[in-house]
Amino acid sequence: MLLKPVRLTRRRAVFYVLALGVALCAVILLVSAADCRAAAVRRGLVRSEADCISYLASLGWETEAETVSCRDSVLPRTFDGVFADYAALQKQQGFDLSAWRGEPITIYTARVTNYGAFDGGGEVWATLLVHNGRVIGGDVHSTALGGFMHALS
User: Fold this and answer.
1) Closest Cα to residue 146, out of 121, 128, 126?
2) pTM (two decimals)
3) Distance, CA of 127 to CA of 109 (rounded, Å)
4) Tell me, what's the pLDDT at 20?
5) Residues 6 or more apart from 45 whose CB is under 8 A from it?
């Protein structure tokens, strides 16, 4: 086998260094892109039903993908009655809905499958309130008559 010696010129050395740098950047971008979606969910960014499932999973709630629904709504301008109690629940878990009064929101709901046994029957659902992709509130509740509602975590 004959080997041909390669002369390393300054031009070739610069080319090899640049090519190595481009390859390294590509690897870094590919690896970080996979973590980007998970990091967005950890920051409370929900832009799809899949993100909703991931966000709830990060809080320990298992859901069924086919039960996830999404609808648009508007937060009331004044919080009175039942909604005042709901806003107080949100404040207890670190969400202040008063900043979003009168704003359009997206409401995601999903049936929770790992809640465990509770009295009263019915199903358990999780709700996420989302404004421009950011989770601004939510709850876990029962559909049973006289059921319950509590914070997400």
Assistant:
1) 121
2) 0.72
3) 4
4) 66
5) 51, 133, 134, 135
**Tens-place pLDDT, residues 14-71:** 676 666 666 655 556 555 444 444 444 456 789 999 999 999 999 999 999 999 999 9
pLDDT on residue 139:
97
Helix (H, G, I), strand (E, B) or coil at 122: coil
**How far apart, in whole angstroms, are the C-alpha atoms of residue 98 and residue 77?**
9
Return d(Cα 112, Cα 149) in angstroms, integer.
13
Q: How far apart are CA 39 and CA 32, in angstroms?
A: 10
**CA angle at 151 for the pair 73 and 35, rounded to the nearest 5°:** 80
- The helix/strand/coil state of 96 is coil
CB 63 within 8 A of CB 79: no
- 62 token code pair: 């298992």
pLDDT digits (tens, 9 = 90+) for 105-152: 999 999 999 998 776 778 999 999 999 999 999 999 999 888 899 999
Compute the CA torsion angle 91, 110, 47, 149 (nearest 10 deg). 0
3-class secondary structure, 139 = strand
